[in-house]
Write a structure and sequence with these properties.
The structure is a single chain. The chain is an alpha+beta fold. It folds into 2 domains: about 1-150 and about 320-330, Gcn5-related N-acetyltransferase (GNAT) (Aminopeptidase), CATH 3.40.630.30; about 155-315, Gcn5-related N-acetyltransferase (GNAT) (Aminopeptidase), CATH 3.40.630.30. The chain has helices at about 1-10, 35-40, 55-60, 110-130, 165-170, 175-185, 195-210, 215-225, 265-270, 270-285, 300-310, 340-345, 350-360, and strands spanning about 25, 65-75, 75-90, 90-95, 105-110, 130-135, 150, 155-160, 190-195, 230-235, 245-250, 255-265, 290-300, 315, 320-325. The strands form 2 sheets. Strands 1, 2, 3, 4, 5, 6, 7 and 15 form an 8-stranded mixed beta sheet that branches. The longest helix is centred in the N-terminal third of the chain and has 18 residues, at about 110-130. This is FemAB-related protein (PEP-CTERM system-associated). Pfam families: Acetyltransf_6.
Length: about 375
């Protein structure tokens, strides 16, 4: 590990101001996790997905190795970079910031720290022999560096919301607003739950219909346990307590991020999905949130259309890739034609079989 840090330091290009002490590169340990999180919460570039808790969640849920680098100067953290390695015979060998997270990459308040962290990632990628390195930032960090590539695949949907319910409801386009009103008239209700049991049931049914492998239930339980009040499970029921759907959301600063959700077959009959996100928006607004992050979607998918129909504007996510052993950008997504047969077969699996097999596959996707 020392060789990685030394190599990263050797790549540093920006000198430290004479009045300041040297910037040094470190790996996060449990002893400095609180300092890490304090920096993340204060750094404008940082996101919920930079928090230290992701290390234990990812390692314990998927058995994936992580490296959480930070740069320190005069006893103060200047920048952080969480990284994780995925090594799969099916989907390739990569180092990323971060798998299972929609946002990632370097979060820093100093250019020297950014260079040092980039160097650490480059050195680690070379040592591990990965095919590629991936950053998942909302903006390109290296727009003028030809060694960093990008492609159009993902967008995010983020929109300001009001403290007034009527204003938020009227901002939803007419057709989707009618669906929300349908759910209200049918007496649907949202309940915040302290476990992931019903959330996992709704989610597993939903992803099976899409032909997508399911995450392990323990992953959702760990998210709820690790992030506490910043991770909410909101489940939707009919007036007679039948399960309709559920969504696991993150609260971050003045934002709410619905992250994993799904619905039972019943959801289509009762406009359950529309009501679920409306119910979440109401609760988030009452909690003081002023930005609703509808999350990442792939171009050309049903999720993309659903969010657009809610009046959200798509913003491209220019994920960056640096190639090492690979000679082409990764294309591990359901829109890739070579996965269509797999998706068709997966949709036909019995739910218990899909729930058993899914975690072994999804850990390789990130």
């Amino acid at each position: 590990m020392n060789s990685i840090i030394e190599a990263a330091q050797a790549r540093r290009a920006a000198p430290v101001a004479a009045a300041a002490g040297p910037q040094t590169l470190h790996l996060m340990t449990p002893q400095n996790a609180a300092r890490w999180d304090a920096f993340v919460r204060a750094c404008p570039q940082a996101t919920f997905f930079h928090l230290s808790g992701w290390q234990s969640v990812i390692e314990q849920s998927f058995g994936i190795k992580t490296w959480f680098y930070f740069v320190e100067q005069d006893g103060q953290i200047q920048g952080v970079l969480p990284l994780a390695e995925i090594k799969s015979r099916l989907f390739g060998h990569s180092l990323g910031a971060m798998p299972f997270c929609v946002y990632g990459g370097v979060a820093a308040i100093d250019d020297g720290a950014r260079v040092l962290l980039d160097g650490a990632a480059d050195a680690l990628a070379r040592q591990l022999g990965v095919g590629h390195l991936e950053y998942r930032a909302m903006e390109r960090a290296h727009p003028h560096d030809p060694s960093w590539l990008t492609k159009e695949l993902y967008v995010t949907f983020r929109k300001e919301i009001s403290a007034v319910d009527d204003e938020n409801l009227n901002a939803i386009p007419r057709k989707q607003r009618a669906m929300v009103r349908k759910g209200i008239k049918l007496g649907l209700k949202g309940v915040v739950e302290d476990n992931v049991d019903n959330m996992f049931t709704a989610y597993a049914h939903s992803v099976l219909r899409l032909g997508t492998p399911v995450f392990p239930k323990k992953y959702f339980a760990l998210l709820q346990k690790t992030f506490g009040a910043e991770c909410e499970v909101r489940t939707i029921y009919t007036s007679d307590d039948r399960l309709v759907g559920s969504v696991l959301s993150f609260y971050w600063r003045d934002e709410v991020v619905p992250y994993y959700g799904g619905g039972m077959d019943l959801a289509r009959e009762v406009a359950g999905n529309d009501f679920m996100y409306w119910n979440l928006m109401q609760a988030a607004a009452a909690r003081g949130c002023r930005l609703f992050d509808f999350g990442r979607s792939k171009l050309g998918t049903g999720a993309y259309d659903f969010k657009k129909n809610w009046g959200f504007v798509a913003t491209p996510l220019p994920y960056e890739y640096k190639l090492y052993a690979a000679d082409a950008l990764p294309d591990n997504n359901p829109l890739n034609p070579k996965y269509q047969l797999f998706i068709k077969v997966w949709k036909k699996l019995p739910l218990p079989v899909a729930n058993f097999m899914g975690p072994y596959i999804v850990r390789n996707l990130g």
